[in-house]
Design brief:
The complex is a heterodimer of chains A (367) and B (269). Chain A contains ten helices and 19 strands. Chain A has 367 residues and is of the alpha/beta class. Chain A has one domain: Rossmann fold, CATH 3.40.50. Chain A is globular. Chain A starts with a strand and ends with a strand. The chains are: A alpha/beta (367), B alpha/beta (269).
Chain lengths: 367, 269
Amino acid sequence: MFLQLATAPALLASDAPPSYKVVSHFPAAKSSETPGPYRGKVARVTSETVIDTATERIDQAAVDKMLSAGIKGLTGAKADKEAWSSFFSPSDVIGIKVNCSGAPVIRASPEVVSGIVRNLLSVGVKPENIYIYERFLDQLTSVHYERFVPAGVQIVAVETPRASLLGYDPKTYVEVSFFGEDDTRSNLARLVTERFTKIINVPNAKEHQASGVTGCLKNLAYGDFSNVARSHMREKTNTLSFIGTLAAVEPLRSKCVLNIMDGIRAIWHGGPFSEDKKYRFYPKLMMFGTDPVAMDRLLLDLIEEKRKAEGAPSLWDRSPNIIDRRAHLDFHKNTFIREPGHIEYAAKNFGLGEYEKSKIKVTSVEI
Amino acid sequence: MLAALLLPSLLAAGSEPPADAVKLNEPRVQYRNNEASATRSPWIDANGWRILRSPGKKFVYQVKGEAAALAAAEAFTYGADALLSADAPGAQTFGKMLEFLKGVPPAELAPVADFGVVDDGSDATGELLNLLTRMNLLYKIEKNPDPTFHVNVRLGTKEYPQEDAQNPSVAAHKIRSQIGDDNRSLRIYGTEVVVGRLMTGLRQARVFLLNYSNRPVLGMRVRIRGGYSKGELRDSGIPESRLADVTQDGPATEFTVPELRVFAVIDLH
């Protein structure tokens, strides 16, 4: 049993971070694991034809080309199979961590997920050893991934029904009290601790009212642990330190070997659940990397630039006068004081990746 | 104080309650999402504090349907002599619960408390006791502070001023912080609708778990201070139920109750 006390000093906020107790019997990450073999490297692929913005129909062929260009751009491999084989072998049991919190409006596109599945099958992974997973069943089933992937591929929700702890590992958790809540534990999904050998993280590109943006780190952290919504109350959110703390817990950290961000469509305000189309935009982008921090750093710029263009306050604006519970109706407002600093916090306190823009190497391909 | 834990008098109907009987609420949970409150937790109508506050008294429940089973279990948990008036469905669920309670073996056990509360009989102290019960903070009701406890609470003192009584949630959290979560004899994770009671005896502990909601609680985790190597779960709704993932965590024993419908008794040895 390893007890990791993560009580790093506050780097980016005036408030001291809460005191975390991390309990896991899995060994700490080796230096070769997250951020993986491509620290600070991001392969960025865009395609003008990947989505029809009027109908929001996604073109599968364009997605497949983006996947091919992205994985080769990241690894330097000449062929798709060579690239995917560098991460996965036929004996692997793979979890594809989709993001369905904004479903059915915005989610890990089934076209992207089906492309990933096809590439896994091509390197010999058995369909029954591929799991598309998310925490909540209603969100997951609203996307209908089953229509896009071969029979045998498993589509499972961790928390079924909601509030059940049966899908979580009672021996792997983070204990912390944010606001005096009595249930102070957040447990890691059993699929992660007991079933998967590797994870592919497939977040969206979204603004988030609490964490500033929700990309690789947030999808991994809040998408694999129980009882995480307790980190927000009134205008205060603890996402600054909680996201990195969760994402660094073993074996989640070591098993997540690849991040593929679906930025074909994106949200610039009201995330993560935004249903209002006026806050949606279409970067027509996918990003590939093993370094979640570097990818999220680029996401920050993407969302911040769009907000600036729309005349919305910066993600970094902590003014009390912008706090309003009805912020989804007005992009000048927000529900919480956002914590986009969670990305730098995860880099500095947990070594989860490269935050310094000057050290991030981006390879860009346009299809 | 050790006392044999026996089935208290539980009468379904027909008897008249004594004039000084303490009337109890129908045990249940209320979700008050649209009301401002000091806590986001659901409101539990639990009677344990009322029963503990009035030792030797008779109690009376007026309940319907499934609440009759929970009322019987609640009275059993706190050793109350209770008269229960129920409708026809309630009488049926009461009967089933009574059968279950008869199967719980008697044992020499004493209630566990982590701190004392001096009860001045006021409404404010009553409200504090109510909240402490719902938060699974184990207290002993006292006439005077008990020196064996590190924490003794008396509202109206410098440490627990009357202003605290205006907001019992603040006082309850202060007490919790004084005890320290790691030192609590009983912790329950994964639900806000279950109230527990812990009793111990020679090489044995017994945990009572009362589910106040009308839905099963799945996968709740329980942490008990003390080392126990064997555990036996008796669930009123699932006869074949077993404890899962029993672990020793330093000075504590933890286990998972896979499904709790209404009431469970766990014996640890």
